[in-house]
Design goal:
three-stranded mixed sheet; 13 strands; eight-stranded parallel sheet; 453 residues
Amino acid sequence: MSDRLPRFPADFRWGVGASSYQTEGALDADGRGRSTWDEFCSPGTVVDGSSGAVGTDFYHRYAEDIGLVRELGAQVYRISVAWPRIQPTGSGAANQHGLDFYDRVVDEMCAAGLDPAITLYHWDTPTPIEDAGGWLNRDTALRFGEYAAIVADRLADRVAHWIPLNELMVLTMMGYATGEHAPGQRLGFDALPTAHHQLLAHGLAVQALRAAGARSIGTANPHAPQRAATDRPADVAAAELADGLLNWLWGDAMLLGRYPEGVDAAMPGPVADDLAIISAPLDFYGVNYYSPTTWGAPDTPHRRVGGQGHVTDDVPFVQVETGLPKTGLGGDIDPDGLREILVALHERYGDRLPPVIITENGTSQQPGTEEPDADGRVRDDGRIAYLEAHIRALHTAMEQGVDVCGYWHWSPTDNFEWAEGYTQRFGLVHVDYATLKRTPKDSYTWFQYLIQG
């Protein structure tokens, strides 16, 4: 543990974040409907054959987890609301039992002195919505706006921060383009309409939240440097294409009211009118940062073992091995990439960029290395080193002029890690999945020290 961590402004807000499907369990409680992730996990597509059926049982243990976050010293606790728990079919009247659950959770957070941050959508689309076309269907954006209004009407008086949709890029690329996530479609570039419909849903949700008196509305977009493997023109072009699809498509639409050159033609509907809705002013811009990616053309001799085209195997960019240290998920550990992308956002958007919050950052370690030892202690030194280096890089970005007002670690507890199941642990708190016992890791103590610093 370093004796000298950077000093942040007194009003800088520290937090943690998690999502509904990864933690709640209780999939049949409250009259909750089925979601795309329930369907996706059913055939055993997750690496360990698991699902979010139990998660970390946050549904029953939320008071315990909120207590752990309070003791951590964090000021913000981010969770997501499960759309199928509020509208089991994705439309129509609200399920009051579902609203009551989140009402209790938000009240518990407020009683603990925490600022609740609510994500309205973290990838758990109601199954009937997906059956009707999902995010390929413009109607889904309209239904989402109605859902946002229902939740806001119940919770806006107490929720400190709102995020309409989490990581729109990931759902488009991994859910609809490559099929690695729910709903498991493999459409390649034909998945691009889902980007526009999610962005429209974001804009409609912002309208609904404003109408309900929501105080602080932002987003949570994944951003990271997309680098060329070499200076060969083909590799540079591959990295530029990836950069446009993974970074700037989303930020340009929300902050500038336009798409990068060449993207408009691939988008459905009245694009110009929709962009006026999509680009409604935000109170903060959320950045989720984990790892940069290095790209090459398909003929690159440096193609990453197990790597692939990020859209389909026949597109003109493939992941390239770099030799950098790896997270448990195999991503490059590159703290300076966080500083680099924050400065790039600042330079690209100027005064159109609201204050930034790091809405996700964290890491898993190699599977099997985060179990309690004979003393019951979880010695996750790798996570501590990762966090310290990234927080130093964040501080450097602030010194270079980027307005960052908060950092929310992902995640407070271990949980269901999507297609990786329970093989990857991201928490500051270890969860024994057999007993659901919570054990704070060494990184939990380190993070307490950081916040107190």
